[in-house]
Amino acid sequence: QGVLAVMEANDDRDAWLRHAGMIALGRIGDAKAMIALTDNPSRALRTVAVVALRRMQHPGIAEFLGDTDEYIVAEAARGINDDYSIEEALPALARILQDERFTAEPLIRRAINANLRVGQQENLDLLIEYSRRKSAPAELRAEAIACLSTWSEPSLHDRVDGRYRGEIMRDAGPARQSLIPVVSEFLDDRDAEVSIAATKLASRFDMQGSAIALEKMMTSHGDEDVRMAALAALHEMGADGLEDHLAVALKDKSEKVRSYALEILPDAKIAEPQAIALFASILEGGTKSEKQAALGALTAYSGQGAIDLLAAQWANLEGGTLDPNIRLDVLDAVETQGNKDLLERVASYQMRKHGDDPLGPWRETLAGGDRSRGQRIFYRNEAAQCARCHRIFEYGGDAGPGLGSVGARLTPDEILESLILPSASYAKGYQVLSLELTDGSLVAGIVEDETEELLTLKISEDEFRDIPIAEIAERTEVPSAMPGIEHILTKKEVRDLIAFLAGLKAEEG
To answer: Is the pTM of this model over 0.90?
Structure first.
C-alpha cells in the first residue's frame, strides 16, 4: 500500500519515480492487488498496475482492456502482445477489434495481430469484419487483409515487434471459404493500399474467380503499384493468358510495371530468340530498373543468343563503358548463368581490380540501388532485422546508433564498410575497449573521447575515467555486436539498403 500511495501522490509527474514504482510492484508480485485497481479513478495507479502485471506476465492484465481510457487499453495491449507475450490474454486482446470506440494505431495493430496468432474461426471473422469497416483507417484495414492472406502460414516473426514466434501451420480451407465472398469487395476498394493487400490475398489462396477483376485492375487502375500488384497476382496464380498480360504491361506508362513484366517474362510462352531481342533493346535504351530486370530475366535462358548478349555486356564492363547502375546485375547474371568462359573472365577481372580488398567484391553495390526496396529491407527483412537495433525518427531500437541522418555523416563507401565490416570503425558511444594499464590493472568501457594524450572511458552509467595514453600497456577492441551483413543479405539487397541509408541526409529526410 505504501508504494501505491507514493504512486498516487506522484500522479505521473516524476517519470523516474513512476518507473521505480512499476519495478517494485512487479517484484512484489501481488497480482490480485493490481487487478483490484481496474476501477480506480487514478490514471497513474491504473498505469502502474498494467506495467506491473506485464512484468509479472500475469493474464489478469486483460482486465484493463475494458478501461475507458484508450491509453490504458493500449498499454495493456503492449503488455499482452509484445516481448514474450501473455498468451492466455491474447483472445481478449483479439476481441478489442470489434469495439469501434478504439482508433489508436498501436492498439489496433496488436489486436489485429492477436487475431492472427489465436487463429480460431471467431478470429478469422473478426479480421474480415474489420477489413470491411469503411470507417477504419485504410492502412489498418490493409494490415488486417495482409494477416488474412498469411492465415494458413503466418510469419515466423511477430508482425508488431518482430520477435520470433515459431512456425504455425493451419488448414487453408476454412479461411478460403470465408474469404471468397468478400475478396471482390476488397479488390474494388477505392484505397490503393487495401486493393494491393487484396491482390496478395487472391493469389495466396489461388482465387481463380478473381482473375477478371485482376485483369481489369492491371489495365485500367490509376495507381501503378496496384497495376503491378494485379499483374503479380495473375502471375503467381498461374492465370491463363500470361503472354497477353505481359504485352499490356510492357507498354504500361509506369517504369515499375514494365520492369516487373520483364522480370517474369521467362515464365511466359515466348520464344527465346524473341525474348533475347527484347532484352537487347532494353539494354540499349531502357531505364535503370528495366535494364536490371532484363539482366535478371536473361539468366533464365541458356542459348547462344543469351550468352552472346551477356558477353557483350561484360565486355562493356571490362572496358569501363557500362552504366555503373547495372554492373552488379551483369556480374550476378554471369555467376547465375554459369558460362565457363565468362566466369573465368570475371575471376580474372576481380583479382586485377580488387586484389586483397575485403570490400572489393561488394564495391558494385554502391550504385544502382532502389531506396524504396531498401526501406522495406530496413524495416521488414526478417533475417536482417535492422530496425530492432537502429532507430530512424521514432521508429526502431536503440541498441545501435541512430541512423536518421547517416547519409550526411557517412559516404556510401563508409556505409558499405559498416555493413560488411562492422568492427572496422565505430559510431561515437559504441566502441568498447578493454585496457591493460602499465601498473597491471585492467579496465574496460565505452570510448567517450580520445586525444593524443588522454582517453576517456565510460565505465558505467554515471562513472567516467580519464586515462593517460602513456599509462596504457595494451588495448583490445571488443568486436561490434552487429553481425556482418554479407551472410544475411544478398548483394542486390545490400545495394538497395545502401541507397536507402545514403539518402537519409537529415532527420526530416
So the answer is: no
